[in-house]
Amino acid sequence: MDTLELRKKAVQLRKRTWQLIYNHHNGHTGSDLSCADILVALYYQVINQNADNFGQKDVDTYIQSKGHAVEIWYEVLADLGYIDRDDLEERYSTFNSPYIGHPTTDVKGMEFHTGSLGHGLGLGVGVALAAKMDHSPKHTYVLMGDGEQAEGSIWEAAMSAGNYSLDNLTAIVDHNDLQITGTTDTVMRSNPLGDKYRAFGWDVKEVNGNDMTALVNTLSKPNATGKPRVIIANTVKGKGITVAENRADWHHKIPTEAEYQEGLRELDAQMEALENE
């Protein structure tokens, strides 16, 4: 897919996620919209994994440590044929459904239960270290939130990754400057984040996390540093829907009917603009 197609895909998946959350009155809206471009760049252009080879030896691993943003991941997996989209739309967040509010291995495409923040990077370190020991070409990607960086387990994992020179590990921080109770600088300041990772032996890249070209170029860039890589992706919480953008209260807010309709109009306008490029 070229960059324009990827940008269209991101708008399409934001719209489906917006609809899923509204229809089932459950989800982490702002967090989903924030990382949509990251997941599209990764799944549609970068990662060596698909619905047919998932789980096979030497296939890349993706771990979503910020598991509360699961709705956008469900929509990506449905769009790519890992799961049935009609089943997702009907059963999301219902009794006995595998499509719950955080990732679970009951869903094809998800290798780990996540959502208890701070654990995903440690899992990624384990997978990447095992791949090194097996001389496997597989790469491991871990998506974290910026509020999650306050967890001590993140830094134990970061130290381990640097110690073992895990250049087959890429961590991505969805850096939208907001978390459930306010700004990250107010709740628990982690900036300057890049300097901290450098001190732990990481190769650090910083990118506009809502710029598809920049994301694809950065995620695709070969790592010849001998170090694990972290990409600090500066994003907008609630990206794409004005009422939700840069608002901490939209961490898991559900749109009203009026907000829902306005969001649909905005997303449709964005798609029309892309169609005219």
Automatic annotation (TrEMBL):
Which is one Pfam family of this protein? Transketolase_N
Source organism superkingdom: Bacteria
Question: Keywords of this protein's UniProt record, alphabetized?
Answer: Thiamine pyrophosphate
Task: Give the required cofactors.
Answer: thiamine diphosphate
Q: Which CDD domains match?
A: TPP_TK
In this protein, which residues make up the domain named Transketolase N-terminal? 17-252
Family in the record? Belongs to the transketolase family.
Q: What is this protein called?
A: Transketolase
